[in-house]
From TrEMBL:
Methyltransferase in keyword set: no
GO function term, MF aspect, one: hydrolase activity
The protein's name: Rid family hydrolase
Top-level taxonomic group: Bacteria
Record keyword Amino-acid biosynthesis present: no
Family per similarity comment: Belongs to the RutC family.
Keywords for the protein's UniProt record, in alphabetical order: Hydrolase
InterPro entries assigned: RidA_CS, RutC-like_sf, YjgF/YER057c/UK114
Gene3D superfamilies given in the database record: RutC-like (3.30.1330.40)
Source organism per UniProt: Dongia rigui
Length: 127
């Protein structure tokens, strides 16, 4: 029997982008990479790393909820850093969102991110 696929698209995702916010495949939820942009716009939130990180993590949380999951069901996150010197500052914000739940995580330095973002994050959760 084929696995049922269901996509979820949040209003916060700019309409010009050709992908969904999250996809549920059976009991697994995949959240697309999110950056700290203004809702529905191709413009970053003002305030630098902290504001971008909080907005991106909020979008990730919303996408998980739309797909029937939550932060405590996340098993893996990947964080893309435009500058690895943001690693420890991001950890404080990330820790505040996840609390005592500590999913597996990778942090990767990249040459650049959409809109000049400081971080992008995606995740996988199980239902």
């Amino acid at each position: 029997m084929a696995t049922k696929l269901e996509t979820f698209r949040l209003d916060s995702l700019p309409s010009v982008l050709p992908f969904c916010s999250a996809l549920r495949a059976g009991e697994t939820v995949y959240v697309s990479g999110v950056i700290g942009h203004l809702p529905g716009e191709l413009q970053l939130v003002p305030g630098g790393l902290e504001a971008e990180a909080r907005q991106a993590l909020s979008y990730m949380k919303d996408a998980l909820q739309a797909a029937g999951a939550s932060l405590d069901r996340v098993v893996k996150c990947t964080v893309y850093f435009a500058d690895m010197s943001d690693f420890f500052a991001f950890n404080k914000i990330y820790g505040a969102f996840f609390g005592s739940h500590q999913p597996a995580r990778s942090g990767i330095a990249v040459a650049g991110l959409a809109l000049g973002a400081r971080i992008e994050i995606d995740c996988v959760a199980v239902l």
